[in-house]
Amino acid sequence: MKNSRPIHPDFQLFLDLKDQEVIELFIDLRQYILELYPDCNELLYHTHALTAVFSISEKLSDAFCMLPIYTNHFNLGFNKGTLLKDLDQMLTGTGKLIRHIDVKKPNDYRNPKVSALIQEAIDFAIKDMDKPTKSIGKTISKIKKK
Questions:
Q1: 68 Cβ contact list (under 8 Å, min separation 6)
Q2: SS3 call for 51
Q3: For residue 107, with 0-12 CB atoms within 10 Å meaning exposed, 13-18 middle and 19 or more buried, which class applies?
Q4: YdhG-like domain: from which residue to which, for each copy (predicted)?
Q5: Around Cβ 121, how many Cβ atoms within 10 Å?
Q6: pLDDT at site 73
Q7: Which is more confident, 75 or 131?
Q8: Looking at the predicted structure, is the pLDDT value of residue 63 above 70?
Q9: Which residue intervals of 6-109 are DSSP H helices?
């Protein structure tokens, strides 16, 4: 495993409140995504879920996937999931764009099918991007301090 970016302190503060199993899964899946696309930007939010969004720019609209942690569950979300081919029909959800894969164990995402789906989402985001980004490989906290 390559060295990863440290988790931003704003995010870590809320992550530490989650169950240890969820924390470990999040850290592993985050690392997996960063290995697949090391130059992505990570946008951090705390709204109805504690969420790390992975984007090819500093904009949410250029995101390819996200890791929302809810009260009782965690998933790998695809911001434009309905626009992906998803040949293995792994994605679930009913929204207009977002689809996800439920995450309960590493095998739910550490496999060639999910790797290919993440790569498809990255390729789609790159093709769909309006203009080149100035930010590469940054972690950007959007978490409001209290």
A1: 49, 50, 51, 74, 75, 77
A2: strand
A3: exposed
A4: 27-122
A5: 24
A6: 83
A7: 75
A8: yes
A9: 9-15, 20-36
